[in-house]
Write a structure and sequence with these properties.
alpha+beta; 5 helices; six-stranded antiparallel β-sheet; disordered N terminus; 11 strands; Phosphatase 2c, domain 1; 215 residues; single chain; five-stranded antiparallel β-sheet
């Protein structure tokens, strides 16, 4: 079942978020926000109840903090009482505008100015490891992650920042089917999280699909 919500965040920011199980048995994606400054998407590793519980535990723990790296470390600590694991991306709004972003795994963040789209995160996957060294990887290696919440440390957490006015956090169930151009086209209009999720499933997505859009 599609879950979609729109939340005004004072006079400056509005967030929309949506999630759909798709053809999987479980929806192991999760999202969270502290209502104003911190935004999280987590994707449980696997299609199981344990993956679902891990994603929600990680997302909720991360949403309590306003520093994205500290948020992921808090998510790491939260998973010590769970058997599952997850990947995660966290963004925090800066008081002076823009966002700070941190991630572990292949959940992504994109920045948009209403026309151009920029991917802020670099996937922690075996495929990306080979690409960074000039080797063309097998497609299946895009789905083999090299970092997760459970294995996150202060040193291996990815970091980025943007001054853009719109931010998108997405699980691979969204960006996989849509690709960069698909996300960019939807955001060029009045692109909401619900439109991204519905479009990903319509495009043949076979995974959970979750998006969060802050603007």
């Amino acid at each position: 079942m599609l879950i979609d919500r729109t939340m005004p965040l004072g006079t400056a920011l509005t967030v929309t978020y949506a999630s759909e199980r798709g053809p999987r048995t479980h929806n192991a994606d999760a999202y969270a926000t502290n209502g104003r400054r911190t935004f999280v998407v987590a994707d449980g590793v696997g299609d199981s109840a344990a993956a679902t519980e891990a994603a929600w535990a990680a997302a909720r723990a991360a949403a309590l903090l306003t520093d994205p790296v500290a948020a992921i470390l808090a998510a790491h600590d939260a998973l010590q009482v769970h058997s599952g694991d997850a990947v995660i991306v966290v963004a925090t709004a800066r008081p002076d505008g823009g966002f700070d972003v941190a991630w572990a795994g292949d959940a992504r963040a994109y920045a948009s100015d209403g026309s151009d789209l920029v991917q802020l995160t670099t996937d922690h996957t075996v495929a990306e490891y080979f690409r960074s060294r000039g080797v063309v990887p097998e497609p299946r290696l895009d789905h083999v992650v090299t970092n997760t919440v459970r294995h996150a440390t202060r040193e291996n957490i990815g970091r980025a920042a943007t001054r853009a006015t719109r931010l998108v956090l997405a699980s691979d169930g969204v960006y996989g089917p849509l690709g960069h151009d698909g996300i960019e086209a939807i955001l060029a209009g009045q692109g909401s999280a619900e439109r991204l999720v519905r479009a990903a499933l319509y495009a043949g997505g076979t995974d959970n699909a979750t998006a969060l859009v802050v603007s």
